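Changelog-linked ticket: uracil example.
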Amino acid sequence: MRMVDIIIKKKEGLKLSREEIEFFVRGVTDGSIPDYQASSLLMAICLKGMDDEETLNLTLAMVASGDTIDLSEIPKIKVDKHSTGGVGDKTTMILGPMVAALGVPVAKMSGRGLGHTGGTIDKLESIPGVNTQLSQEEFIKIVQDIGLAVAGQTGNLVPADKKLYALRDVTGTVESIPLISASIMSKKLASGSDAIVLDVKVGSGAFMKTTEDAQKLAKAMVEIGSGAKRKTVAVITDMDRPLGKAVGNALEVKEAIEVLSGNGSDDITEVCITLAAKMLELAGMGDFNKCARLAEGTIKDGSALEKFKQMIKAQNGNEEVVDNPELLPSAKYTTEYRAASDGYIFSIISDRLGVASMLLGAGRATKESVIDPGAGITLLKKPGEMVKAGEPIMMLHANSESLFKDSLDELEKAVVISREKPPQTPLIIDIIQ
Ligand code: URA
């Protein structure tokens, strides 16, 4: 088999066989296919697409490129959740405890943030002492003991994705539905859960800018899940507005504690209850409405908050932060971003808000950047609310006052104030199963 023939075949819009896809993924992983040929095929896939069978074969070949996690020692149905990334998305820290509090084990592998999007691992590591770099044995033991662990990726999981993603990043081939869905689903399948709930974000802060594209991505991923015999559901949620009120690591942990205590804002609470209910439904806990009531009940009776505390303790962290969030790191300086005119906050553009928070130290501009756990932004007003000129809309938190200027400049571009009240659009846009 020759790589050049595979490239030409896809360039002509023809379907690749399973053997050809496996040859490509093997060659990328062991380095026998040079980057220029791999990139060329990636571009051909971007332009000509792949059908469901090709996408499933690509995903399975990627899973086979490295280790897989065996969770069979943990009894019951294990449900995983994945979000396609967003700004201020702290859902894992909320719905993991909700689902686990109802006896459904959650063994969650999460990632770090890059650029304007945050990552759950960075957020959890802002809790003093928390260890997210668990060995596979430690990870499984914690899930067996308390039903919930959140860890960074261990071992050599999907090495083909690491190579392909790095190439896609620099060859303009990230935005392809078959490539994104194979990348995400290969990591989910390798992580070993029996069922998967996908939170597909749509809007300015997300990969998918339109509902139509988000639906296509969701369908492609659900199709892969069922092809791989894992129950998979995708919930399409709005990322045109920031979720909740906090962006930044410790600030988001604090907000997660507020939501788990029943004091969170309505939007984040609604998204978490919906995603948790879908996870519970896949775990066989009843229909969606019953599961939503059960999920809500874990906030009301305090069991989800207690589960979060147990998880922090099991992962070596100081669980006292739950009762006393002042123990979380905080920034030395704050300043306010104020409304430029009277009117309604028409929108707060999520990706610009993410960049403004990154500029304060809460995110990574490059993979090597070091995160400041206390930095970030809290929203004092949300889209749809009325403001007067000069009224504070956001609070910026940083450890150096010199960081405020660039961040405030970015916020000028993020906030749109209008005489018109913005239309109320649903947060949960679609559910694909
Ligand atoms: N997230 C991933 O893991 N892979 C992609 O290709 C896009 C988003």
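Closing comment: Example verified and attached. The longest helix spans residues 211-227. The pocket of uracil is lined by residues 84, 179-180, 183-184, 207 (CB under 6 Å).
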